[in-house]
Structure formats: structure tokens, C-alpha cells
Write a structure and sequence with these properties.
Number of helices: 2
Number of strands: 4
Order of helices and strands: EHEHEE
Radius of gyration: 15 Å
Largest sheet: 4 strands, mixed
Helix content: 10-25%
Strand order of the largest sheet: 1-2-4-3
Shape: globular
Distance between the termini: 18 Å
Length: 108
């Protein structure tokens, strides 16, 4: 499952874990500048530091931690991380997760 939606990852994460479909890998580009927003109304063509949309100056690090905790709850572990250095439009990092039971207490 590949998620690259310019900030909507924070709002859609709960929909990634279906009962009828289980992704073995999740690849997601995270934009931490949108971690604190409840609604995304973004013009992705405008550079992030030139935008007036809400959230791009306030990183909600608790929500970032919750994001990774939710992935672990669903048995996804990070196996690769890569900063996106290509774009000047936004701050982003690519994360790759694989579904794996690494501890006995994990309920996969």
C-alpha cells in the first residue's frame, strides 16, 4: 500500500487497516508540518514556507508518535526511512513498513 497524498496521511491512517484486506507493506510519505491539522485544505503547488494554510509551522510531535504507535499496534515495523530531498515544495520523509510479529506480546 503506497500513500503519498501531501498531508492527508494524518487524516486517513485509520482507513488503512481493513478487516477484509491486510497490506503486507505500507509505504508512506509523511509531512510532519500537517500533523496537527484536523482538515486539509492545501495547495500543494505552493512552497511549504510560502503557504498560509494552517499547521505548517506547528509540528504536533505527540500526533507523530501516535501515528507510529498505531502502525506498531497493527504489527507494522519500519524497515527503511529516506528523506525526500528532491522537492523544495514541502518537508517530507518516506517510511517503509512491513507487517511482522517481532515480539510475543504483539497481537497480529
Amino acid at each position: 500500500l503506497k500513500i503519498d497524498c501531501e498531508g492527508c496521511e494524518w487524516l486517513t491512517q485509520g482507513e488503512w487497516y481493513g478487516k477484509n484486506f491486510v497490506a503486507q507493506q505500507i509505504l508512506v510519505e509523511l509531512h510532519p508540518q500537517y500533523a496537527g491539522v484536523e482538515r486539509l485544505d492545501v495547495d500543494a503547488s505552493v512552497p511549504v514556507f510560502g503557504r498560509k494554510d494552517s499547521g505548517h509551522h506547528r509540528f504536533d510531535w505527540h500526533r507523530v508518535q501516535d501515528f507510529f504507535d498505531k502502525l506498531e499496534e497493527h504489527c507494522y515495523v519500519n524497515f527503511h526511512t529516506e528523506p525526500n530531498l528532491v522537492s523544495e515544495r514541502y518537508i517530507a520523509t518516506e517510511f517503509s513498513f512491513v507487517r511482522a510479529k517481532l515480539r510475543k506480546d504483539m497481537k497480529c
